From TrEMBL:
Residue span, SRR1-like domain: 13-174
One GO cellular component term noted in the UniProt record for this chain: nucleus
Lineage per the UniProt record: Eukaryota, Metazoa, Chordata, Craniata, Vertebrata
Entry-linked InterPro entries: SRR1-like (IPR012942), SRR1L (IPR040044)
Protein name, UniProt field: SRR1L protein
Gene name of the record: Srrd
Amino acid sequence: AGAVRVSLSSPAGPPARCVCLGLGRFSACPTARHQLAFLLLLLEELRVPPAQCALFDPAFSAREAAVLAALGLRLLPENEEGKHSVEGSATLFYMVHCGKALYNNLLWSNWSPAALSKLIIIGNSFRGIEERLPSRILERDYSYIAKVLKATEELALPSHPHYLDTFNDTSVHWFPLDKLQELSPEVWNFVEEPTYQDCEDLEIIR
């Protein structure tokens, strides 16, 4: 919660709503259960009503969907492939251990300084993605991640010995408006929808 609170010092303020993607089968997977528990604690800490938190994972069973509804959470009706707009209000996207294409699609669907400045992402470290992926692959397949790196603030979640596999390589990311406005106009002029012809990392995209 402390790591997330740092990101809330931005002018966007605390999130009014939350979107959780790729949580996984929490009825069978302890890691997914821990991630769901942390999400519920975050909503409480940030005072986001459960009804303002929407989730999607094609792996959810009918019983899991019923559990989420009983917790007061909402299910998105369809697979948006990560293309979800902040719709003008500060939004927390909880996307732990999702595929790179999902983050890339999310950035594309909010590709303006005004929208990105209202975006908070808890997910795989963008710095880690940059370090592990050859730059030509990053720029070819995940161009929106590549273009926003210079305007990204990132804070790693603190490691915990009991949850090493649950939140490893996980950071809070936010995009300060002043940093976004320093990017060149060419960055914002290119808004072509991403395609992933030669890409294998397409978790819940297709």
